[in-house]
């Protein structure tokens, strides 16, 4: 992939830019294998799940900079000034097609960009999600409700400019800190959830829902988990840190009990709305303290970067589960957690390349009780 922004040193986020994709993938495979060799010396590695080298991102988190009437959509430089990245080659074409109409909309509405160094202004971010069906979730992250009435009044124009926008919201984020969103979400459209076809299921994403930024590779991840679950033939599956239910929905089968656990009420409600025949059950709870029944034969864990931690690792190690599928975006915490589960042997692993042009790697490991 060639990038004019990278070559001009306007954006250096893609640290592997210019490295042939095959070399990137081989390096990620080597890094994962090296990180796990001490805790999983006999781990059998499947071929990595490849991604397109460019135009793969289904989500854009665009910092709004510049000035009123002439905003930038992209990132901030080292001095806190806006750098416009509307021609970035990482985004899916259908997502990138929304950037110019939204840029004009923000400019014409005279929305004041938030000036980070000066700590003044209103519009902080545009957060956009693109579905395989060409629909979009559009979020405006504002410092206050100053522009809220303007956005409500201008919603018909926004939907005319971006007819693919299915869900439009305003997030109020009054604090000056490195957090992407605030606690208050105001939905402007009748629709509140964005359907996302991925793998063999359709998930429903709310404004705050976590979802992998690479739809094609997320589909490969879920299908691999489905294959491993089918091979284990469990009667009861728990999906911890289940989010909007991707793993749980793929694990569902006639005669099988599937339970999903997630701390976010919004995510659980979206997961429940996705479920149909042979539906999993989704509950709000902390994966580390969940007391559910019936007991699991197989557990899926997909934690944040920090991993599952010693408490859950100890529980899994002593649990009745005969298999665990661990999906991780941090091989360091994965290695630590595997070491804390000596009764569970890692038998198969696979790299899923969610983030080409960067060193970040998703790894899923299948563990079986010794």
Which short descriptors sum up this protein?
370 residues; alpha/beta; Rossmann fold; OB fold (Dihydrolipoamide Acetyltransferase, E2P); 2 domains; 8-stranded mixed beta sheet; 7-stranded mixed beta sheet; 17 strands
Describe the protein in words.
This protein is an alpha/beta fold and 370 residues long. The chain has two domains: 4-53 and 200-205 and 208-369, Vaccinia Virus protein VP39 (Rossmann fold), CATH 3.40.50.150; 59-191, OB fold (Dihydrolipoamide Acetyltransferase, E2P) (Beta Barrel), CATH 2.40.50.1070. Helix content is 27%, strand content 27%. The chain has ten helices and 17 strands. It has helices at residues 4-7, 21-36, 93-96, 99-108, 148-161, 215-232, 246-251, 265-274, 309-318, 331-339; strands spanning 44-45, 59-67, 70-76, 82-84, 123-130, 136-142, 165-172, 184-187, 194-198, 201-205, 236-240, 257-262, 281-284, 298-301, 323-328, 344-352, 362-369. The protein has an eight-stranded mixed β-sheet, with helices on both faces. Strands 4-3-2-5-6-7-8 form a seven-stranded mixed β-sheet. The protein has a two-stranded antiparallel ribbon with strand order 9-10. α2 packs parallel to α10 (331-339). The termini are far apart. The mean pLDDT is 95.
